[in-house]
Design a protein that fits this description.
Blueprint (H helix, E strand, L loop, with lengths): L3 H6 L5 H16 L5 E2 L11 H13 L2 H5 L8 H15 L8 E4 L1 H13 L5 E5 L6 H6 L4 E5 L10 H7 L4 E7 L11 H18 L4 E5 L22 E6 L12 E5 L6 H15 L6 H7 L10 H16 L12 E2 L8 H9 L3 E2 L1 E2 L9 E4 L4 H19 L3
Parallel strand pairs: 1-10, 3-4, 3-5, 5-6, 6-7
Antiparallel strand pairs: 2-8, 7-8, 9-12, 11-12
Length: 397
Amino acid sequence: MLVQKYKDMLSKKSVIRNLSEFATARGQEIGYENVFDYSLGNPSVPVPQAFTDEMVRMLQEEDPMTLHGYSPSLGITSVREAIAASLEKRFGIPYRKEHIFMASGAAGALSHAFRLVTEPGDEILTFAPYFPEYNPYVNLTGAVLKVVPPNTETFQINVPAFEEMLTEKVMAVLINTPNNPSGIVYSTETIQTLTDIMRRKSQEYGHDIYLISDEPYREIIFEGVDAPCVSKFYDNTIMCYSFSKSLSLPGERIGYVAIHPNCKDAEDMVYMCGQISRGIGHNCPPSIIQLAVSKVLDQTADLSVYETNMNLIYDTLMELGFTCVKPGGTFYIFPKALEEDANEFCKKALKYDLVLVPADSFGAPGYFRMAYCIDTEKVIRSLDALRRFVKEEYGRG
């Protein structure tokens, strides 16, 4: 007999993926260049040339078994050393290789982090708006994801609701900053408030509460934005990172878990990640990709296009009378729809070949997400379609 919970998930497919598939099909009809597809957060800028050069060099010069053989369970030692050294240099935290576990992107890192600190029935708190895939990521471990309702004025954390929901059953708090879908970056004040509450509650309940920091957008920060390193505020932090966005490598599935050196049993936790891999099959990410990223840790793709696109879209949204908190990073923007039901709003937008994602599954009904990781030329053309949509459907502009 097939497992019912996975069969049930077939009727609850990702709305993002569904809309992306729609955009692809529509593109086959009218040319994809004429579909303004803001559905999928797929980086749109090239990888750094240094990464490509290193891949070519290794393929030409290095031993094939080194490049294509299994890596050690915890990741390649030299790569872990390089990542630890980079983190220490950037953030002043004394990471060593013993604190680093190589993972298959941020999703793989999170899969390990959740299993490190929860038993079935334990709770993990996160904050709306949030990445909807957190639901299966957490709930299929046997832990339970609870979502703190949003502060829609700023999309910083809703402090009163958080304090109320931070009960003795909570073993971890999951944050994502810069945030998908809002584009908001949690400020120093927000992180300080969050971690002060967590320390107080950990002492009150007599058990550690871990902070799991999901950071795939860490390098996409816009000019003048306060973007603190989360791990500097709280010893029991588990950093989950991906190179997908910073280096434009989403298909290579490479990232890491970084346990704060002051976290109790930090080194044991990394070895435990190796054992968790045995149970979930999320082990030994590609050796060649580990080696290549270790040579470009202090580089990024040219991420400036995302701020350019954001400003174009944000200014147009303001011109048309939308309510929207200006993003501080990522390649997402999160306006309020022009009617109560964002699903209906987004359906109407499809008539203008605007593919927008309603935010019910992000925990913020009435809002929608635009992933503006597309060519700036296409963004500019899409704004005419947006103006026409808003004028013809809502009498604005």
